[in-house]
Structure formats: structure tokens, C-alpha cells
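Two folds, back to back.
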Amino acid sequence: MRRISFLSLLALSAALAGCGSSPPVRFYTLQPAPQAAPANVPRVDYQIELAPVTVPQQADQPQIMLREGQNNGALTPLYSDRWSASLGNEIGSALTDTLTRTLGALNVQTLSPAKDIPVWRIQVDVQRFDMVEGGPARLDATWRVRPINVKNGRALICGSVVQVPADQINVVGSLVHAQQQAVVLLADTIASAIQSGGARATPASGQVQLLGCAQ
């Protein structure tokens, strides 16, 4: 009995020591650092409503999922590197941040807009959210803008692929920053569709590829 108790104590001590040596968990967000509002963006007479963003289940995990290579299907969960919220909420918050600043419009996602107030409803369906070991970060999405009570506004649905290189190899923070940039570029491309009244979308940069749009 003494031997069993002694071995049990050793096992417990080893387990506690292992827990004590576990690396700390780091939390990341896709929301960019706070920025001052652009000086020359006038307030508009419409509001925006961003629906909850849908993301692929394999990417929608608390831990960051690292793809081992561009042509490799293997995903590695980084248990010490996690998102501060669900991935859909992270992307939605980052999109809202850029859209409201770029357009000068209020987001009424959780509020009921006043009757007859013009609203652009935005839906984003993410098909691919890749953080590739060594870069790049890739964001594929189908998105739609739809006018409600907007005079001469037209609905538009588009597919986009955004790829942003990572600055450093095998550094999670660099990949997160690249995805932050990818979300900003996607938001600016969506904003261009709203600014055109749904007539067309303009890629925000050469890192954005439009796969086609339809009314």
C-alpha cells in the first residue's frame, strides 16, 4: 500500500509538473488596431446590415488551423494559438470595422432600422480560410449586397479570392496579420459595390481576384 501510494504521488507530481510547463495560450483577433476615421468620408443617407458570416467547419475552430503546404490537405491545430472569438464573429467584426469607416455608414446588424431608411444588406459566405505555413493567407468568399428602400439600387452577388503573402515564415502573428489585410481588402471590394449602387464591384487591389458578378 505504501508503494502504491508513493507511485501515485510520483504520478501526480509528474502530471502537475507537466501542467506547469505547458506553453501559455495566445489569443489573436482579425480586427485591426483602432484607427482614426478618414477625414474626407461624408456621412451617407443609408445604413448597412451585415448578416452573420458563415465559414467552413474545418477552419471554424477555437485554435488556429495551420495548413502545412499550399498543395497539402493536412491541417495542424495550434492549441497554444487561438482566436479571441469564433472565426465567423472575428471575420464579421473585422468586415464591419472597415465597411463603416470606408462608407461612413452605420451598421444596424443588431438594431431595427427606422421605417423607410435605406439599408444595404450584406451577406458573406466564406468558402476557404487558409493560413499556409510560410504563406500566403487566402480568403475565398461569395458575397451579396442587396438594397432595401434604396433608390436605384440593385442587388449584386460576387465571388472573390484574396491572397496576401506573410512577411515571415512559420510565424503565426505574421499569418494573422496577413488575414487581417485580406479581410480589409474584401471589405473594401464589397464597399465598392455599394458605392456603385450595385452596378459593379472593383477589386480593392491586385491581391483581390473577382471570379465574376451577377445581378
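---
second:
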Amino acid sequence: MPDISKEQVQHVADLARLEMNETETEKFTKQLGDIIHFAESLNELDTTEVPPTTHVLEIRNVMREDTVEKGLPRELVLKNAPDTQDGMIRVPTIVE
């Protein structure tokens, strides 16, 4: 992959709505170029015997059993709501 250009760095900065002066653009162009070259050097490694992985540590999600539990009575929930209508909590309209 060719080096990254100042124009590409400025384009990405514009997309991210970041203002950069010429010095910052040059600095980030060099830094991003170094990152790209390092990532490209990883392609030279032989990974044929390396199994795919999603995480470097052998961890598992520990979750509780998904069981149905009785919720609060409607009257108790509605008693604490600031505004109700027809047995439901009424909230302000946010989308017109």
C-alpha cells in the first residue's frame, strides 16, 4: 500500500469535523503512515498454524439463567409515575 497523503489525512479530518493546521497534518500523515507500514509488516508472518481467535484470553460470558420473574404490580408502578393515561406512563413527545 502506498504512503498516506496529506490530502487523505485532511479528508479524514474533515469527515471527523476536526480542524488541523499544516503542522498537525504533517505530523498525523507521518504517524498514520507508520501505523499502516506496521500493519502491513504483520502480513509477512506465517499464521497458517494459528487458530482464529476473538479474544486473547480464554474467557466466557458468565450470565444468569434467563428466567421469567413476576414484575411489579401495575398500580405500584403507575403510582410513582409523574403522568399517566389509560393505565400507561405518559411521557413528553420527542419526535414530531
